[in-house]
């Protein structure tokens, strides 16, 4: 088991039972693993900064840290195939290539875009861009094919997302592909304040021939081997009110609702095509936000919706951010106002501590951004 995590704002490495601190008195967020597990990209900033924007790399074999660029957003992504990293400065996208000699080369590949993701092949990016500056202008999707370092990217129009005259859409989320790469999903995002309340989930076929709007949602994830998209549905910025776990086939117009009345679902992950794990709590609209019930994990049958407990937190503890990998369930247990713990279970025990005292992630109306402080490496 291998993970990068943040403790006391520093970057740490966990290998099975061994821990190692990688930075000293820094302010680190958003650790992300390269495909081969030899690099960690992360953002570094000042202690008094809530938005660190210096992009750095850590090389595990040589124990070296390399600074890349400043003013980088937290949307940076490793290529799914190569040792390349894409990142955004303001609205321009760059690709960093790590040569075999460990030297870095950076090139600008797209200007004035809203968001981006790697294509599944790793040969290029899919980017989104506003047609014009009007809030109700269409969203244009382009494929940016990279070629070799010395070659100019080849940019091809892929699809135009129609936006109604009475709509406000300023950007998209990043893109997620189904396991067979025949479908992609993304969010249409209104202005920043409205986005806290309502984003629209869309499904688009990889040939650009079928586009559908699905629901107003918060989070989404494809099944491991089927074209089934699970998502958290519900408007409103509060994460512990009016949020349901649902799933829909890519070609279907009718989906399934897994959340029983009186309950609220949050973070989730797929165990396999037949089961999901979700962070679930009792809905309470009356109590102040900090006094509302805390979640525990449930295992949900994707066919029937029947659920059974998967974790048993202590009083005043909440279980979040489930991840299933290598036949083990990992999650984060929020144990006090300043730190949290990473737990795991192999199915033979209720839950064991793996990493104690990680830095608490930021939260917004009950929604925690645990990617800021924890990253599990998946082989």
TrEMBL record:
Pfam families: PD40 (PF07676). Belongs to the TolB family. It comes from the Bacteria. InterPro entries: 6-blade_b-propeller_TolB-like (IPR011042), WD40 (IPR011659). This is PD40 domain-containing protein.
């Amino acid at each position: 088991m291998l993970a990068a995590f943040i403790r006391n704002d520093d970057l740490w490495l966990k290998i099975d039972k061994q821990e190692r601190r990688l930075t000293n008195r820094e302010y680190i967020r958003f650790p992300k693993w390269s495909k081969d597990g030899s690099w960690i990209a992360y953002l570094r900033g000042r202690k008094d900064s809530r938005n660190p924007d210096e992009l750095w790399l850590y090389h595990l074999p040589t124990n070296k840290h390399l600074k890349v660029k400043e003013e980088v957003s937290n949307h940076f992504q490793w290529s799914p195939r190569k040792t390349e990293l894409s990142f955004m400065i303001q609205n321009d996208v760059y690709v960093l290539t790590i040569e075999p000699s460990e030297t870095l080369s950076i090139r600008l590949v797209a200007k004035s875009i809203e968001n981006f993701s790697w294509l599944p092949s790793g040969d290029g990016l899919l980017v989104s861009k506003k047609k014009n500056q009007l809030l109700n202008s269409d969203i244009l999707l382009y494929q940016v094919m990279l070629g070799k370092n010395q070659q100019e990217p080849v940019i091809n129009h892929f699809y135009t997302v129609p936006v109604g005259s009475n709509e406000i859409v300023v950007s998209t989320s990043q893109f997620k592909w189904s396991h067979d790469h025949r479908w992609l999903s993304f969010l249409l995002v209104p202005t920043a304040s409205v986005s806290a309340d309502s984003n629209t989930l869309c499904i688009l076929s990889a040939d650009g021939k079928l586009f559908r709007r699905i629901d107003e949602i918060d989070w989404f994830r494809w099944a491991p081997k089927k074209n089934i998209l699970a998502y958290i549905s519900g408007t409103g910025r509060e994460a512990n009110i009016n949020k349901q776990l649902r799933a829909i086939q890519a070609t279907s117009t009718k989906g399934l609702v897994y959340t029983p009345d009186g309950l609220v679902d949050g973070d989730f992950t797929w165990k396999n095509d037949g089961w999901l794990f979700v962070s679930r709590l009792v809905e309470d609209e009356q109590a102040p936000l900090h006094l509302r019930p805390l979640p525990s994990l449930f295992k949900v049958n994707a066919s029937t919706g029947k659920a059974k407990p998967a974790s048993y937190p202590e009083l005043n503890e909440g279980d979040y951010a489930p991840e299933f990998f290598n036949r083990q369930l990992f999650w984060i247990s929020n144990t006090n106002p300043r730190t949290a713990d990473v737990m795991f279970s192999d199915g033979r025990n209720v839950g064991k501590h793996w990493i104690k005292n990680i830095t608490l992630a930021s939260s917004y109306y009950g929604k925690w951004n645990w990617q800021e402080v924890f990253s599990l490496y998946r082989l």
